[in-house]
Amino acid sequence: MRFPKRGDLIADSIKQWIVRDKMRPGDRLPSEKQLTEKYQVGKASVREALKSLEVQGLIRTTTGPTGGSFIAEVTEARILNHLQSYFFFKDVTATQVYEVRRSVEPTLARHIAEIADAPLLRKLADNVQASQGAVQTREDWQRQQQIHIEFHDLLADGATNPMLCIHCKFINRTIRHIVRSRESPQQRDIITANRIWHEKIYEAIAKRNLNAAESLMREHIVELDDAYKVSKPQLTNHLHLETQDPDRLSALPELP
Amino acid sequence: MRFPKRGDLIADSIKQWIVRDKMRPGDRLPSEKQLTEKYQVGKASVREALKSLEVQGLIRTTTGPTGGSFIAEVTEARILNHLQSYFFFKDVTATQVYEVRRSVEPTLARHIAEIADAPLLRKLADNVQASQGAVQTREDWQRQQQIHIEFHDLLADGATNPMLCIHCKFINRTIRHIVRSRESPQQRDIITANRIWHEKIYEAIAKRNLNAAESLMREHIVELDDAYKVSKPQLTNHLHLETQDPDRLSALPELP
DNA sequence: AGATATTTGTTCGTATGTATT
DNA sequence: TAATACATACGAACAAATATC
Question: What is the pTM of this model?
Fold first, then answer.
């Protein structure tokens, strides 16, 4: 395709409009009919443009009399899905994920130690408390793994630095995939070691000890990396689906 | 909207198909007509699905007898644009960008010191060479700034760790925005300081001195952060346009 | 070079679904 | 309940791009 499609041109034009007029989330776009008249194009082209903006997460669309297209803030879920799609064919190894994690998460811990408020401290304390349970069965092990990653997610969610937040959230999502693809090793000592690390990190954060939070987190990640270095390095990736309802998908005919 | 749109359902179904059948970039999808027959839906719905996948970067589409939709690897440019859109309404400050940069770029420097090959070393050397020029005019200053960021981009492009690469590339793109929004300060000493830092970092990489590369980069970033802390913290963000050709956009009618 | 076939791109008319009044 | 305003969906036709012969 030498020439850009009409839909893409219109989408870009609307983007310019959003920037130039400093539109904010919630602001309303003209209706499809108005857009066809303004741009002198067919309905389908306008719909392609709106679909493009919708997939990018910049607008959301509703039906009905008060409906239409409205400027939206791109959600965290959407950008995480896009990142996941980006790495789908990339063959990222667990070692590579840990290389990034080792550099970013200590910074996150320091950041949180600086800004954590009472509600966040409470959530972290609850999480540490929840990780006290015994690890007997395979289900126990998997549950503890989820609680463990949840601790890291709480830290990321608590960040006031959006860039730091999103990077850490994506790392955690990737770690979840790695953990799932791993057959449970009978390494109960790792689980208890993790619990102790989290306790220490929590204490450092609660005491606003920035340096301790950072270095403890670094040691924690390095130990995790070492512990799992032997296991399957390749992570099994998949594409995220918007509609998690499997019934609706299976209602469609199968493809050959 | 309570029920998902048909286009989204079909897009998800195709995604499942891609994962289940282990399709690879270049593989062909059924034609629009075939898809309408398979899914028993109208052409518009199929096109919405394909448009969604196209915007996500998972397929590319061409016309003609050998044309159609083909599986594609999501490009770096596309994910960077999505990240930019994500932060559009987020009000990220320069300080926050540097907080992430300070943690991740030293890791990148270490990574590169470990794996850099001759061509990359050559490019880095050329870049350092190019930064020797005098800084007299305002244009000199801006050119030197671009060469400086180019050095960091060369490091990111050289990374074999895709996750590290993309994070650093996005940081660099954001830094470019910050630099552009900054009126040139008459701080010629910063430019020369940067040049010296880059020389040292290059030397460490060339000598495969991982620790030196990492710590030099850390000091370099910290100094940069301090030097610019006084300037405007807010970065002026904008949305990326697919079609950079301004003629085509201005050919469209203006919006009210 | 020109004709032609194939596939996407675009338009239009019409009908349906949805949410408000 | 009915009228409305909007998005959603279908189908047929035509236009444009790009291969092959």
Answer: 0.93
